[in-house]
Design goal:
heterodimer; A: 75 residues; mainly beta; six-stranded antiparallel sheet; 43% strand; globular; B: 173 residues; alpha/beta; six-stranded mixed sheet; 6 strands; 37% helix; 21% strand
Chain lengths: 75, 173
């Protein structure tokens, strides 16, 4: 099942499937690339940032950024 | 000669800077503490060398003020040697930045900082293998405790520009 990263629920895991082209360079430095496993750690209320776990380290993303990343949900 | 300290926000660049120069740059646990930069001096083989604590940046494609400063400083100091400080517990994204700097042709020394934190997380890093692939000196450090700083300094002279194609070749093996 596919979902936007911003739509993942707490503790849900998946692999990054698609990143909007002009965003790729921006998030690569934060460890997010196509194929990477991510796990939703926290979602802040009122359109706040999301925190995902990549490579055993947390990274936070603005909701607008998370909207442009598609994840294949695993569990 | 100039030395630039570069790395992600919140990996200990300022702590490292203080250890190198004996200065007192402000350390805090908030990322993005250094927006302006701090300059200092250290002795290297009898010579006074300028050390610059560059604001933290995730990559060389700047997306905010502090990152713009970082990228600009790198470009203005073509002759500089870069000490790239990486959080050893988040090594992959750190290497992304290190590779970008290497790709631009700068001589780089990599400090794998927060070595103790990585150990606590049971992260094992084969430093010898990584050195062989990248062709740059790599030293585990704990900047807060002062561990490994001397080794970084002693290996600055080994730093030289590495062709990115060579690294790619060695990765394939």
């Amino acid at each position: 099942m596919e979902k936007k990263l911003s739509e993942m629920s707490y503790q849900e895991e998946g692999a990054v499937k698609e990143i909007e082209e002009n965003l790729k360079g921006k998030v690569a430095g934060m460890g997010i690339r196509v194929g990477k496993k991510v796990k939703m750690q926290t979602k802040q209320p009122i359109k706040g940032p999301v925190v995902v776990k990549v490579d055993e380290a947390n990274t936070s993303l603005g909701l607008d950024v998370a909207d442009k990343i598609v994840v294949e949900i695993e569990k | 000669m100039k030395i630039l300290l570069m790395g992600h926000p919140n990996v200990g660049k300022s702590a490292f800077f203080n250890r190198l120069t004996g200065a007192r740059a402000i350390e805090s646990n908030y990322p993005g503490t250094t927006v302006d930069y701090t300059k200092g001096w250290m002795r290297l083989e009898g010579e006074n060398v300028e050390v610059i604590d560059v604001p933290g940046t995730f990559s060389l494609e700047a997306k905010d003020k502090a990152e713009e400063v970082a990228v600009k400083m790198l470009e203005e100091n073509r002759e500089a040697i870069i000490i790239c400080i990486i959080d050893a517990s988040k090594i992959e994204r750190g290497l992304y930045l290190a590779l970008q700097i290497i790709e631009k042709g700068y001589p780089v020394v990599i400090a794998l900082n927060m070595w103790d934190v990585a150990k606590d997380k049971n992260i094992e890093i084969d430093i010898k293998k990584l050195e062989n692939i990248l062709g740059v000196p790599i030293v585990p450090t704990i900047a807060i405790g002062g561990e490994g700083i001397k080794e970084v300094v002693s290996r600055i002279k080994e730093a030289s520009a590495v062709k990115i194609e060579k690294i790619i070749e060695r990765t394939d093996k």
